Please model this.
Amino acid sequence: MSLVAPPFPARRRPSRLACLAGAVLLVAAAGLAVIAVTQPARAQPARLAVSMSEVVPAPVSVQPSGGTPYTLSPDAGIFPQAGSTPAADVGAYLAGVLRRSTGYALPIAPAGSGAPARGVSLLLAGADPAVGAQGYQLDVTADAVVIRAQTADGLFNGVQTLRQLLPPEIESAVVRPGPWAVPGGRIVDYPRFAYRGTMLDVARHFHPVATVKQHIDRIALYKINYLHLHLSDDQGWRIVVDKWPRLATYGGSTQVGGGPGGYYTKAQFQEIVAYAAQRHITIIPEIDLPGHTNAALASYAELNCNGVAPQLYTGTAVGFSSLCSSKENTYTFVNDVLTELAALTPGPYLHIGGDEADATSPEQYGTFMNRIQPMVTAKGKSVMGWHQIGASAVQHSPGRIVQYWGLNTSDALVSSAVSKGAKVVMSPANKAYLDMKYTAQSPVGQDWAGRIEVRTAYDWNPGTYLSGVPASAVLGVEAPMWTETIVTEDHIEYMTFPRLPAIAELGWSPWSTHDWDAFRLRLGAQGPRWTIMGIDFYRSPQVPWGSGPPTTPAGRYEAEGATISRGVAESNHAGFSGTGFVNYDNAAGAYVQWTVNAAQAGPVTLRLRYSNGTAVNRPMDITVNGTPAATGLAFAGTGAWATWQTKTLTVNLRAGANTIRATATTADGGPNVDYLEVQ
Model:
């Protein structure tokens, strides 16, 4: 699972004008680093049509027609199956994606009984029977796009393919000029495995609701249908439990390195669950038991065998904590937690962890797991846990899922569990862990399981990976991301892309399509799309991303191209956008000023990307057209000069040209500023 993380090396900047020569590479994540203004974007021509061969994951069957592509026009509509609310919901989702970049009205109306109308039809009839519960059939002619499926899940998956068949600019958050062409032909597609997941550890470092939602939006494009949230660990407890309130308020008050931590209220967790469900993603909550429990033990002394609560923990060691398996109160606690969590979770699984319980003897471990598994099934859920729950002392529960995270291609615990009827989710740490470094130069991540470049993540077969585990016992794949070193949304996106699409293809596509040389070309074609989405991904040298600098997202205003007073444009950090960033002088009054054009007057959201490698707040005044919009706006430390974060505020713009100025207010000067982006 997640072993000891190496501490971050100390990084100091000798002076405000001399950035660290060995600064690490860090690329900004999707949607982070934006000062967003609601306006039409600067015109950038779109490509005419994407090839049907560029889709990731690879479809089961692609039959290009070679005929005239379909071009989405201003009078097009979206036509979901009449009388189907789920199909209408998929239509509303598609309209939301397309309207923002095309500017078209795209009205939604029930599909008629005749020939598909001009636009996109979403039908729950007529699909190839092979598509099953999650697949789809997509037909594109010069007149219309028709997606057929047996379920709304299938329609949604077809919509993700349609997004990839449109030019990358379709992902823009502002209006682009088009044209919006879709290549003609037919795709019949369905998944190899029912389960295609990723995991986000919000316990080691807490990540707020907005970050999780952003992550959900990104992973949906690649037909990921499960998001596993690791909600508790030694360093923090991240979900409110009404009967045990100190779990969140005290146990959630810190994180690795001693930061402020955080937790989700029940309403916030339900918000995440609902947001994911709208994108046909099921949330799997994990409470790791009986180890990885220091946050709980620190919150309630009575959960400890000696009745003494330990201190909160902010390090990265593992295996030292355990609930007291001999106390009846422990099982009351676990049942209360699982009861409340099950009530928040419409999905079929509760993940009970079970890994690295080194402080628990095998006998205690078996006793504990055999007590708590029936608690899960009594709540109408299936047990899911790390593969250690396959221990012979642990009884098999109906529908049990073991998640394999080991480094070997055989495992007795997994084989034993499968022989008793368990299914397996494959997450081998040396293939699928998204927190492993790409290379020795990766700025964040660990390497205890090895370094995972894109080809390493792609070149393994989940159906044959473990000896003694037949493909029929494999439920699917999951790519976990542990967050000992993953602090910001930038980190999440950088470590996710491009590896998660590789894992997604292993979960979706038939093994007969597996071909590294073909995949690397399809993956490279995703690069412009990620850039438009704001995902400054890891540009693996194994993948042909294309020549020249990345496309600048529409509406982005680089700091180095703005008016600079008492500052300097520099490029001695890796990870900046454009040609560099602005380093403010150590002086009050230093500023960077952008000229921004707005199509109409009104309120907008501003998001500014910055880094501050000190512990000193570097406040700035933000003015719009000379009028104060924010005074003394805090720009706190980001942990390193190569760690970028985002500051957000709302202002009013006038129609036409506007000046936005960020002025340092103290002798420390301002933070490093990378860009202002207008969405």
User: Anything to note?
Assistant: The chain has 15 helices and 29 strands. Residues 2-48, 547-551 have pLDDT under 50 and may be disordered.
